[in-house]
Amino acid sequence: MQKQKPVSMSVIRRLPRYHRFLTELAKSGVTRISSKELSERMGFTASQVRQDFNCFGGFGQQGYGYNVPQLCTAIEEILGLQKQYPCILIGAGNLGKAIAGHMPFEQLGFQLIGVFDNSPKVVGQKIGGQEIRPYDSVGAFYEEHRPSMAILCVPRENVEEITDHLYGLGLRSFWNFGHYDIVLKHPDTIVENVHMNDSLMTLCYKLAATERP
Amino acid sequence: MQKQKPVSMSVIRRLPRYHRFLTELAKSGVTRISSKELSERMGFTASQVRQDFNCFGGFGQQGYGYNVPQLCTAIEEILGLQKQYPCILIGAGNLGKAIAGHMPFEQLGFQLIGVFDNSPKVVGQKIGGQEIRPYDSVGAFYEEHRPSMAILCVPRENVEEITDHLYGLGLRSFWNFGHYDIVLKHPDTIVENVHMNDSLMTLCYKLAATERP
DNA sequence: TAGATTGTTAATCGATTAACAATC
DNA sequence: TAGATTGTTAATCGATTAACAATC
Q1: B27 CA, C21 C1': separation in Å?
Q2: What was the pLDDT predicted at B151?
Q3: Which of A17-26, A56-65, B85-94 is the least confident region?
Q4: E strands present in B24-164
């Protein structure tokens, strides 16, 4: 029985990209690939690819390469994509509608089980297979269904209040669209922060960098 | 005249967060802060804070700390936030509407100068101060206004085609909401990819990790 | 077998942290 | 001046790359 040393976060962050790539390859019928070819296509080094795959008990074959579907499965296992964690989405404005309607949750380890919004204008509408519920029913819903995670698609001025409320109910994992550092206030939560502002600022830096001396 | 050694990307990625934090502080009237206090509030080490600030010619004062508004300005300069790069947004569906309507471009180094969509249903509507234009006018618009960057808020199946088209027009910088690795196809472009899928997968990993042996 | 390509160890590189003299 | 806190150098840590023996 081999000791399972934890995979480093640097590696984890590359896994989704590998996964997309390998899924594409698998779809187009490719069944094997070498670290060299994969690295060239993805802009990594071959060494890194091999190191990465070995983190989770490599199963390439010398002189042959890696089995593409096997790799996909291995990555899915590491990322826990088979789990289908139940999640809820808060805020059915434009952003919420975009996410609820177009995010392929099932492929990403989640199942959307509820959408909530305050506005009577949208409550009752259907979106992403879910009827939008009034936000004040979220407490009862949490008790009954115990979602693992909440997606926040609310205006920035409401993020703090809503996070605190959900935290109070017992929720400990959030996927948040920017604007507020949940993690600082509730350090025991799991947060994945898609901070669009930061991302845009970083792009600005890159643009600015192209015209520097 | 001191040699301006380039700031490393690890540092750059932390700058937006510093900026938000310091802006908040400045707003609430705080004018000075020590690396120790800032580090504690932000979850970094004091050492890192000092190293980071020294990258761009530190101007703290021994025994005193850093001047908050000065720091903000310095970060803004590094990130190029005063530049106001003109940008266009493609796709005025829910996601596009959310971005165009709520992203504070002016604070982030950009100015939204045009929104484009194919659908006659939305063309002519106003959003984020912009009238939505038909996508087939984007070529002429590019020639006239030379936007620096395009934000893509289109369905994943259209990302490739639209990117190629804009690239053909001459655009070289993109801010893309996931699904497709522009950077691999056009390696000379500047891309900032808010890959929501990847982010969600990473959250899934973190969730899964909490229940591992 | 010969050629190819992995698994793995060692070397390098870069980023973070610690320590402390300089100085406000 | 004494206390505080920076700027900066040195030490540590981790991640990436190179190299090569193992082996399919």
Answers
A1: 35
A2: 95
A3: A56-65
A4: 32-33, 66-67, 85-90, 110-117, 126-127, 130-134, 149-152
Which amino acid is located at B9 in the chain?
M
Helices and strands (DSSP H and E) totals, chain A: 9, 9
Amino acid B3: pLDDT: 42
Superfamily of domain A85-198: NAD(P)-binding Rossmann-like Domain (3.40.50.720)
CA-nearest of A84, A83, A88, A85 to A142 is: A88
Q: Nearest nt to A13, CA vs C1'?
A: D15
- pTM attached to this predicted model: 0.92
Contact B148, B116 (CB under 8 A): no
Q: Which nucleotide is nearest to A33 (CA to C1')?
A: C5
pLDDT average per 10 residues of sequence, chain B (213 residues): 67 93 94 95 94 85 93 92 94 96 93 97 94 98 97 92 95 87 80 86 86 68
Contacts of A110 in chain B (CB under 8 A): 200, 204
Comparing CB atoms, the residue among B16, B108, B201 nearest residue A108 is: B201
B32 touches strand C (CB under 7 A): no
Domain boundaries along the sequence of chain A = 9-78, 85-198
Tens of pLDDT, residue by residue over B47-91, are: 999 999 998 776 889 999 999 999 999 999 999 998 899 999 999
Query: Which nucleotide's C1' is closest to A59 (Cα)?
Result: C6
Q: Distance in angstroms, CA of B9 to C1' of C20?
A: 28
* A192 to B208: CB separation less than 8 angstroms, yes or no: no
The tens digit of pLDDT for each residue in A75-113 reads: 999 999 988 999 999 999 999 999 999 999 999 999 999
Phi, psi of A29 (to 5 degrees): 90, 0
**What is the number of CB-based contacts under 8 A between chain A and chain B?**
173
Say if A9-78 and A85-198 have the same CATH topology: no
CATH topology of domain B9-78: Arc Repressor Mutant, subunit A (1.10.10)
Rounded to the nearest angstrom, the minimum Cα separation between B133 and chain A is 19
CB count in 10 Å sphere of residue B131? 11
End-to-end CA distance of chain A: 57
Q: Which residues pair with A131 in a beta bridge?
A: A126
